[in-house]
């Protein structure tokens, strides 16, 4: 398998984390999250969105969007519940991650730490922090008294939300006020096969 990857991307990290936990081998092709000038040339035939991660299976079929890739490999494993309602809850948290969490926390992190244009972060900071804290508040309420996001078991939902939450400080988010999230982050990092984002 070939993974078109960015080392700093949380969306790519989700895929690398699950593949590591499943013990699956793959090769990477590194893509820049800043210079996207070669995206059409490299990814044009593979992913109409021209985004990473994009994965090419051993048989040549491409698959895009991080959470879709997680489901392709995770379905039928311990990381996806068998119960229909619990499976839907995993999807609920993955939709929340892409709609409410990632557009604020990941975007703040990108502009502040990786874009080379911190002034853009300065202009958007108040809006991004407000949206990101709203997402973190929702997670904190849910995780208070729970070990994991769904059914007290580590799942794709945890992988999806761990990716950008554990590096939220790079976007100016202080997690000191979120004890349930901090404990959950430690619990996720202690899972068998876990690899850090910079592995």
In terms of topology, how is this protein built?
Elements: E1 2-5, H1 10-22, E2 27-30, H2 39-43, E3 54-56, E4 62-64, H3 66-74, H4 84-114, H5 118-143, H6 156-165, H7 179-189
Parallel strand pairs: 1-2
Antiparallel strand pairs: 1-3, 3-4
Could you walk me through the main structural features you see in this protein, from its secondary elements to its overall organization?
The structure is a single chain. This protein is globular. The chain is built from seven helices and four strands. With 199 residues, the chain is of the alpha+beta class. Strand 3 (54-56) and strand 4 (62-64) form a beta hairpin. The chain has a four-stranded mixed sheet, covered by helices on one side. The two termini are 18 Å apart. It has helices spanning 10-22, 39-43, 66-74, 84-114, 118-143, 156-165, 179-189, and strands at 2-5, 27-30, 54-56, 62-64. The longest helix has 31 residues, at 84-114. The protein folds into two domains: 2-74, Glutaredoxin, CATH 3.40.30; 84-189, Glutathione S-transferase Yfyf (Class Pi), Chain A, domain 2 (Up-down Bundle), CATH 1.20.1050. It is 53% helix and 7% strand.
